[in-house]
């Protein structure tokens, strides 16, 4: 179904983005990975791009369209998760997190939408369960992810006239590193395990599938049940 469709994945060099790029590649899509780091996945085209920079993003999407014609889907996955005490967050730090995580979703969506002139026409944004719940000292990241939640339904409204669907995924804890997890890390989830990149990649595929065209403006939490779990101490 996605054979030879042009799918752009941001932040495809590592972690969840890498899993997404690999899964769409396995579906025979033509996957283009945008990242500041080199994307090293067989069969995936790499284009270097700082997704927080308007000019770089405008240029990269224009060149993708020149080379491939229409863009069919965009997965806005790139992001940084760094947490600092509010007393240490300066203006530069605030701008860095908001620009990388939130501004990027706006500009990449707009530029991809210009070239979404054929079927599929889907955008998926990576939010976080931190858009809905918090630990202390997470203000910049949480604000960026809450912004993505709102931007998703706003873009879904605006881009509906072009037949473009816009959805979000709010992942919980997704283990992408090589460090050993503890038993308690898994057992505290109703799912009995911490999430993996593939859990998110499959949801991206589901939301991109044109058969699911009744879903737009939605945000799906994928977190092993953690945002529904009551944590009162008895
Ligand atoms: P990661 O750090 O493993 O990968 C992020 C990728 O984005 C990297 O390849 C990095 O080079 C790229 N990137 C960073 N800044 C960029 C920029 N300015 N331009 C282009 N590329 C840039 O992160 P991970 O864990 O795979 O997360 C992916 C997304 O999922 C992020 O948006 C993150 O906030 C979100 N998320 C992750 C969760 C987790 O538990 N891993 C939980 C909830 C959300």
TrEMBL record:
SUPFAM superfamilies: NAD(P)-binding Rossmann-fold domains (SSF51735)
PROSITE patterns named in the record: ADH_SHORT
GO MF, one example: oxidoreductase activity
Enzyme's top EC category: oxidoreductase
Keywords assigned by UniProt, alphabetized: Oxidoreductase
EC number: 1.1.1.-
Family: Belongs to the short-chain dehydrogenases/reductases (SDR) family.
PANTHER family given in the database record: DEHYDROGENASES, SHORT CHAIN (PTHR24321), ESTRADIOL 17-BETA-DEHYDROGENASE 8-RELATED (PTHR24321:SF8)
Protein's name in the database: SDR family NAD(P)-dependent oxidoreductase
């Amino acid at each position: 179904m996605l054979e030879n469709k042009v799918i752009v994945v941001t932040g495809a060099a590592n972690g969840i983005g890498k899993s997404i790029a690999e899964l769409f590649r396995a579906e025979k899509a033509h996957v283009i990975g945008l990242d500041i780091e080199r994307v090293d996945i067989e069969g995936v085209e790499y284009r270097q791009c700082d997704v927080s920079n308007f000019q770089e993003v405008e240029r990269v999407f224009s060149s993708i369209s020149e080379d491939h014609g229409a863009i069919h889907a965009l997965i806005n996955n790139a992001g940084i998760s760094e947490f600092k005490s509010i007393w240490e967050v300066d203006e530069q730090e605030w701008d860095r997190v908001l620009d990388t995580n939130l501004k990027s979703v706006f500009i990449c969506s707009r530029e991809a939408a210009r070239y979404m002139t054929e079927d599929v026409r889907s955008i998926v944004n990576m939010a976080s369960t931190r858009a809905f719940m918090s630990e202390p000292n997470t203000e910049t990241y949480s604000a960026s992810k809450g912004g993505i939640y709102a931007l998703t339904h706003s873009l879904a409204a605006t881009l509906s006239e072009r037949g473009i669907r816009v959805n979000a995924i709010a992942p919980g804890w997704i283990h992408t590193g090589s460090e050993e997890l503890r038993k308690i890390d898994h057992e505290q989830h109703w799912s009995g395990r911490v999430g993996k990149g593939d859990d998110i990649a499959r949801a991206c595929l589901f939301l991109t599938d044109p058969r699911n065209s009744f879903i737009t403006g939605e945000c799906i939490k994928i977190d092993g049940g953690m945002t529904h779990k009551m944590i009162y101490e008895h």
